[in-house]
Design brief:
The complex is a heterodimer of chains A (294) and B (266). Chain A is built from 14 helices and four strands. In chain A, a hairpin with a 3-residue loop joins strand 3 and strand 4. With 294 residues, chain A is mainly alpha-helical. In chain A, strands 1-2-4-3 form a four-stranded mixed β-sheet, sandwiched between helices. The chains are: A mainly alpha (294), B alpha+beta (266).
């Protein structure tokens, strides 16, 4: 794709250089016009993007189920009932503050040593065993789950799907061609969404989800430093194979720590401290290791 | 026996005949008191009600459990009260009451009726909530009952502004009963999914990742399991919060420190 673009650009430049001055001016004008036209279309597409490729909450859930099935297939889901129950309770605490209408959050553990967490649209949230092993208390688990809930609340993956659809189709064609209830579009949307999760969302989306997590921890009574503890653990393990995908798909842990610290500092004094629940977290994880998985 | 029945029969009869009128007068007075206590500045708050686990009175706060949640929006002389009572272990549909400054109305999807003429006006939980206080109150208060306590009430302010036109309208707003424009301090159960488990989730078999393309065998069964098995019942979630004294239970006196997890606190 890039090679073809570069070849076309080189050819155009050669034609431009070899052409007579008058013809050169004309070609320049045409190119300028096309560039301007394209820029206007991009601007228009950004402005009307969500309207051009609308995705309702119901469609979001349907797409999210496909992405969740892909994530579950990629890593395997740990179905330990006690551990899953515990993760769901912590997740439900952070998700149940003014929940998005129509969204029911579910939290599951992915059976991998890789340190990571994912949120598929529609409320399907995953945290890995590797991430749990990197934590020491419940507030930290709540922070990671709140970060993922933040992505769902902000519809980050949905907007990524909308953005790629309108870029691929162009504004007018998208309005006519996209049947979001169609099988073909659904498969494309699932593929695009899963790719977005594995390739990484934008830096802004990630930092916004961190901000959301700190504020949410404070709102529900958890220690807002929970996110900082997780980011510090990531920073310490930088370069490890188990954190490599997370590092490739997120801003630097040190940048995230700086930003999160600012959010904590902006919290009202009475919200800067909260429940850590180290003992309850350890108990939940110890019970899990004592119970053979199935 | 004859003497007892001759005494009891008229007494029971008089209670049966007099109760509705007396109860209505009592509620009417309570509503009058509410109206007078509404503060000048607009405000919204939420109450978490803990009621006796068994019977009508609990010996102490430890013998109470989550019984319901109440949201109140006020702007003198108007107010809106949304009462969510636990029914069968889950929060039921709200009883929505709006005071327009002169009288109180029960607002339902089919319209508004004078509260005193409706069935919820006789509901003990609704009556207890309406008894107030509607004005300032401690973040944690106890409602006494004969032989113990009838309820423990935890109050939190709700941050954010609300739309007064919508809040005090005598009809339910489209898309739900909540009217507060905020993202914090509201603790409700997770929303119901718009789409329920159906033909099974469809995944994709190849995904591009930051470390290269990987082959995947989608697992729709895991998604069905998440949908069917992992919903958290409201009462269990409330117990979990209370055990660690997460909000809104953070205002409970520290004597009620989580008995099964003394380290779970701050």
């Amino acid at each position: 794709m890039i090679g073809r673009g570069v070849r076309a650009l080189v050819t155009a430049l050669l034609v431009l250089l070899l052409a007579a001055p008058a013809a050169r001016a004309q070609i320049f004008g045409e190119i300028q016009e096309k560039v301007q036209d394209a820029a206007e279309k991009v601007q228009q597409a950004r402005k009307y993007g969500a309207a051009v490729v609308p995705i309702s909450t119901g469609q979001e859930i349907e797409i999210g189920r496909g992405i969740a099935a892909t994530l579950a297939g990629a890593y395997g889901v740990d179905r330990d009932p006690e551990l899953t129950r515990y993760v769901n309770l912590v997740g439900s605490v952070v998700a149940s503050v003014d929940p998005r209408p129509g969204i029911a959050y579910r939290f599951a553990v992915l059976d991998t040593d890789a340190v990571n967490a994912f949120a598929a649209p529609g409320g399907y949230v995953f945290v890995t065993r590797g991430a749990l092993a990197a934590m020491e208390d419940e507030a930290t688990l709540a922070a990671v789950l709140a970060h993922e809930v933040g992505h769902v609340d902000a519809r980050d993956v949905v907007e990524e799907i909308q953005s790629r659809a309108r870029t691929a189709l162009g504004i007018e064609e998208a309005a006519e061609a996209v049947d979001v209830t169609g099988e073909e579009y659904l498969t494309k949307a699932v593929e695009t969404g899963a790719t977005a999760l594995f390739m990484g969302l934008s830096r802004e989306d990630e930092l916004e989800a961190d901000r959301f997590a700190v504020e949410r921890l404070a709102a529900v009574g958890y220690d807002p430093d929970g996110l900082l503890r997780f980011l510090e653990a990531l920073e310490e393990r930088s370069g490890d194979e188990d954190v490599s995908l997370l590092e490739k798909t997120h801003p630097d842990a040190s940048d995230r720590i700086d930003e999160a610290e600012e959010v904590v500092e902006d919290l009202p004094d009475e919200r800067r401290e909260g429940v850590v629940a180290e003992a309850r977290f350890r108990r939940a994880l110890e019970e899990d290791t004592a119970t053979p998985g199935f | 026996m004859k003497r007892l029945s001759s005494f009891l029969f008229p007494a029971v009869l008089s209670v049966l005949l007099a109760s509705p009128a007396a109860a209505q007068e009592e509620l009417s007075a309570a509503l009058e008191g509410r109206r007078g206590a509404i503060p000048d500045d607009p405000r919204a708050f939420q109450e978490t009600w803990l009621v006796p686990s068994e019977g009508k009175a609990a010996a102490g706060p430890e013998q109470t459990e989550f019984g319901g949640r109440v949201r109140v929006y006020q702007e003198r002389p108007r107010e809106r009260i949304e009462i969510f009572e636990v029914e069968g272990g889950e929060l039921g549909d709200p009883v929505v009451i709006v005071g327009d400054g002169t009288r109180y109305w029960l607002v339902t999807p089919v319209g508004a009726s004078p509260l005193l003429e409706t069935e919820p006006a006789a509901d003990p939980f609704v009556r207890r909530v309406l008894a107030g206080p509607a004005g300032d109150a401690e973040p944690h208060r106890i409602v006494p009952a004969e032989g113990g306590i009838a309820a423990v009430v935890l109050r939190h302010s709700l941050a954010g502004e609300f739309d007064a036109d919508e809040a005090f309208a005598l009809e339910l707003p489209r898309g739900g009963s909540g009217v507060l424009e905020t993202t914090v301090s509201s603790f409700s159960a997770a929303g119901d999914p718009e789409v329920v488990a159906s033909a099974g989730a469809r995944g994709v078999d190849r995904v591009r990742t930051a470390s290269g393309t990987i082959a995947v065998t989608p697992d729709p069964g895991a998604v069905a399991w998440m949908e069917e098995e992992l919903a958290v019942p409201t009462l269990e979630l409330e117990r979990f919060r209370r055990e660690a004294r997460l909000a809104p239970y953070d205002v409970l006196p520290s004597v009620e420190q989580a008995p099964s997890d003394p380290e779970a606190g701050r």
